[in-house]
Amino acid sequence: MTGAVATFPALRNHSGLLGVVVLIAAVCALGATLTERFLSLGNIVNVYEQSTDLALVSLGQTLAILTGGIDLSVGSLISLTSCLTSGLINGDPNRVIPVVLAVLALGAVIGLLNAGLVIVLRVHPLIVTLGMSAILQGATLFYAMGPVGKVPRNFNFLAYGRVAGLPVGATIAVVLCILIALLLRYLPLGRQIYAVGDDDDAARLAGLRRNQVLLLVYGASGFCCAATGLYLVARFGAGQPYTGVNYTLTSITPVILGGTALSGGRGGVIGTLFGAYLISLVNNLLNFMDVSKHYQLIAQALIIILAVSVYMDRRRTA
Amino acid sequence: VTATIDPLETAASRGTSPRFRSLLSRFGIFLVLPFLILIGGVISTSFLSAGNISNLLLQIAPLGIVAIGQTFVMIVRGLDLSVASMMATAAVIATGFAGSNDDVALIVAVVAGTSICVGLINGILVAKRGVSPFLATLATMILLQGFRFAYTQGAPSGNVPPFFRTLGSGKMYGIPYNCVILLAVVTFFWIVLHRSAFGRRIFIVGGNPVTGHLLGIRTDAVTIACYLISSFLAGAAGLILSGYVGLVDNWVGQGYELDSIVACVIGGVSLKGGRGSIAGALAGAATIMVAANEVLLFGLPIQVQIIIKGVVIVFAAALYAD
Asked: Residues 205-234, chain B: which have Cβ within 8 Å of A?
C-alpha cells in the first residue's frame, strides 16, 4: 500500500478509503450469501436512510479531528438543538423556517465559542469541549426535563421524505459531505486545516491562519450538530434532553473507520461518509441475522479495534 | 493578527511567571479545596455536621480510587476512558452469583481477572500497536458495554452480597469502611509512584519516552503496567460502588471516566504526561464531591451542578495550561 501511495500522491489523504470500501464489500458479500433480501434495492435505501444521523454529526467531527483536536460537545449540542427546535416551534407551521434557521445559527455560534475558548485559554480542545458539553447539557435540562414541544406533521419530510426515490436527510448529508470535501481540496483555508493538524507549531510559525482554521472547523462541527438535532426531531417528532448523549463517542467511529488519523493532518470526509455507511450496514446485517441489539456493540468495538490496529498511527512518539 | 510570532515573546506576554504557574498548577488544588469547605461551613450549618462529613467520605472513596488509577495512565501520556465501563462490569459480576457471602472470593477473582484482561488490551494496543489511548480505551469501553448487555440481556438482576454492602456503605464509629480501603490504596500507590524505582520510571517514560528508551527502560512494559493499574483499581472501585448503590444496573459508575479525568486535571496531573501526584488526584476527587454536595445542600437545582462542573473543567485547565 505504501508503494501505491508513493505512486499516486492523491491517495495520501485517502489511503483509509481503500480499507473502508474493502470492508463494505466484505460485509455486502457476507450479507448476500446469508439472504437474498440483503442486497435488494429496498434494503440498500434503508441502510442509506439509517446512516443519516451518524453521517451528519461525524462530518463535523472529521474536521475537528483533522486539526488534531476533537469535539466532545456534539452530544449535548444535539440534545440542546433538538429540544429548542420542537420546543420553540411547538406545532406552529409559521415558526418552522425561522426556528430552523435560528437553531442552525446557534449550533454554529456554539462551535465558534468552542474554538474561541481553545484559542484564548490555550487549553486542549478535548477539555474545552468536554466542559462545554457539561454546560450545554445543564442548559438543556434547564429548558426541558423530558420530551418537549411538537412539530407540524409535515416536518418529518426531513427524515422520511423521498425525492426521486432517495431519502431527503441522507441525501442532504451526501451533499454536505461533497461541499466539505471540495472546501478541503480547493480552498486555501481547507488546505490549512491539514497543515494545522499535521504540525500546529510549524503552521503557526509559517504564518498560517491557525485561529481562522479552528473557528471554521468547530463552527462547522456545531452546524452539523444542529443539523443532526433537526433530523432527530423530524424522526421522533419531539426533542428530548438526552437524545444526543450517545453521539459524543459514536461520532468518532466513522471518522476513524474512514482512515482519518486521530492525531490530525491526514484523512478526509469522504472516508467518514463510507465509515457511517459501514456501521449502518453492519447493524443492518446483524438485524438480518437476528442477532440481539446487545451484540451489536461488541461488533462495533471489534471493528474499531481492528481498524485502529490495522491503520496504525505512523507518528508514534517513541 | 501578527504574521510572525516569537515564541519567547508570547511566553512573556502571559503575565504570570512560569515558576508561579508551575507552583499554582501543582498546589492550587490545596487552596481550592479548603476554600470550598470554608464556604460550605459558612453558608450551611449542616455541611460540617458529622453525618454529612461521613456521607461525603463515603462518596469520595470510589472516585478517589478510580482517579488514582487514572493518574498513572495520564502520567504516561495516556487517558483511560474504559474505567466507568469496567466499574459497571464489576458491579454486574458482583450480582452475577447467588448473592451470598460464599461467593465473595469468586467474585473478586472474576473481577480481578476481567480487569487485568482489559488493562492488558488497553496497554498492548497503546504501547505495542501505537493506537491513540483515547481510541484504544474507547474501544474497550464499548466492548465491555457490549458484553455486559449481552450477558444481562439489558436487564441486570440479582443481589449484591452483604459483604460488599458493608464494604461500600458500612461505617465503624462514623468512619466508612470504604475510606479505610481508600487510605490503604492511597498509601500503597503513593509509595509505588513517589518512592519506588518503578515510579521514577513512570515519570521518565511520561516525561520523554525517547529518553526512557535510551536509559534502558522498557517503556512498553511501564506503559502496559500503568493501564493494568488503572483497570484493576476501576474494578475494585466498581465493587465498592455496587455495595454503596446496593442495586445494579448497566450504568453503575456512569460519568466516572470523565470525573476521574477532571479530578486529575484539577489536581495538577498534566494531560501531556510526565507530571502528577497521588495527593493531587485525591484532592481533585474530593473537590468534585464537595462541590456536588454543596450544590445539593444549598438547594440549587441539579442543572447548576452540571453547569458548574463544565465551567470548572475549562477554567481549571486554563489555569494550569502550560
From this structure: 209-210, 212-213, 219
